[in-house]
Structure formats: structure tokens, C-alpha cells
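We emphasize that the prediction below concerns an isolated chain of 303 residues; any contacts that depend on oligomerization or on bound cofactors are therefore not represented. The input was used exactly as deposited, without trimming of termini.
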Amino acid sequence: MTELPQQPLRQRVKEALLEEENINLLDSSPLIAVHLLGITGVILTGFSWAAFSVAAFLYVLRVFVLTGAYHRLFSHNSYKTSRPFAFLLAFTGTTAAQLGPLWWASHHRHHHQFSDKPEDVHSPIVKGLFFSHIGWLLCRKYAKADLDRVKDWAKYPEIRFIDRFHSLGFLVLLAALYGLGAWMQAARPAWGTTGWQMLSWGLLSTVFVYHATFCINSLTHIIGKQRFKTGDYSRNNWLTALITMGEGWHNNHHRYAASCRQGFYWYEFDPTFYILKMLSWVGLVWDIKPVPKHIYEEARQNA
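Result of the prediction step, given as a C-alpha cell string:
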């Protein structure tokens, strides 16, 4: 098992904050605004079960698309699908406001190549907890996609389009949320929902999606158990798996990233894989890559 370096947390946070000279607050203003508007908006507009239910649905939908498409499809090609369905997944992924699929996949592939090494831009071991969790996203240096790393997907003009105009999906979502809330206010006044309330809860849902996703970069390289010796600090963490629909089995993933399944065993909760499996039953996805037998044998030897 790879042990964490014996460096005080205070020192790691201090070193992370030294990266501040690279942080561009102007470029980071949309990310900051989503946090501020979501939190303050919910406080000001109040609660309704309708707004809460929509926010919860959007959380599940967008976490699934980030994990099932941005990660398992665009980053690792762990299954195949048609171009129209890939575009639909990519567009839906942009509603999470985590930039486009090519940007996401190129940085993730870089992470796998240099996991927990000095070149890894979001390693908590190298950069500290703050920088690995969110600080690197505030830096202009990492704002662009390295298209050389994603040539397999960059060859499709529709994927390049949605990657370039990634803000379109999020703006469409915000308009739809306001419209839905305004309709509910007029048609179902007893529900106590307004356009601004629905919009605010949608933004708060986005904040939760952010930090659930970011925890995979940060916490799953610090907290959890290592089943496999992967040469990095990746760990399996059941709590992050719960909030990310299966992404928390991170040590499993780093051992065999080509597999569509990250929870290698039935007791490792991986609903993203279950949903993709069901989509394969109706022909929307196919060639789902399994966990090879030799990986299971290695796991038994390490038990």
C-alpha cells in the first residue's frame, strides 16, 4: 500500500496557496458566481418541494453524465455509442458548467499519465488539498484543452462545437429552470415556487455537482484503501463513490482505467455502470469493456 508522505496538512495547504499567483479571479468569476448566487439565492427565495426535487434530479442526471460520458466515454472509451447519442451526452454534460468534453477528457488523460507526479496538475500529494480540489480550476494556465490528447474525439466537428461553446448548455438550463419556476408560480401557486427560486436551487445543485466531482481529484488520493499497487496514491472510498455514482472506487479505476465498471464487486456501489448496462439493453451503447479475469486474480492475491 502506498503511504501518504509525512507532511503536515498545514504545510500542504500553505504550499497550495503559493499557487495563488497563477489564479485569475476574472476568468474564475463564473465559477465563483455560481457558488455565490446559488447559496444566497436559496436563502433569499426559500424552499419548495418542487424546486428541491428538480435540484435533486439535476444533481443525479449531471453526475451521471459527467461520470458516464465525460469520464468513462470521452476520457477512456470504455464503451461505444453512436455519434448522435455521444453529442447528446456531451451537450447534457455542459449543463454541469465544467467546460466541454474535450477539455475535461484531455486533463483527465494527463492526470492518468502523471498521477501524483510533479506534472499532475491536481494531485493533493504534489499541490496540496486546496489546489487539487478547486484551485487549479481558477488558473488561466489550465483553461484550454490539449487537443493532441483527445484526437479520437476531436475529429468529430459536433464534439468540437459543443466543447468550444460549452456555456450554451448551462445557459439553456438556466433559462429552462426560470421558465419552469415561472410556469409553476402561475399554474400551481400552492406549490410556492417561483422562477427565481427554481433558478437558485438549480445553481445550488450545480455547486453540489462541482464538489462531488472535485472530491475525486482531492479526497480519493488521500482517504481510503488501496487494493492495488498502482504507483500513485489513488484510493477506494465508499463515501465518494456514493455521492458520485461510482467514481469513488478510484484505486480500482487507476489499476484498470479501460474498464467501464469501477466498482469491481457487487458490493461496490457503481450506479453509473448499472445505467450504462441498461442503456446497452436498448442499443444506445455497446461494447462495454469488462474487468479482465487477471485483474480479479490480482485482487485476490492482494487480499
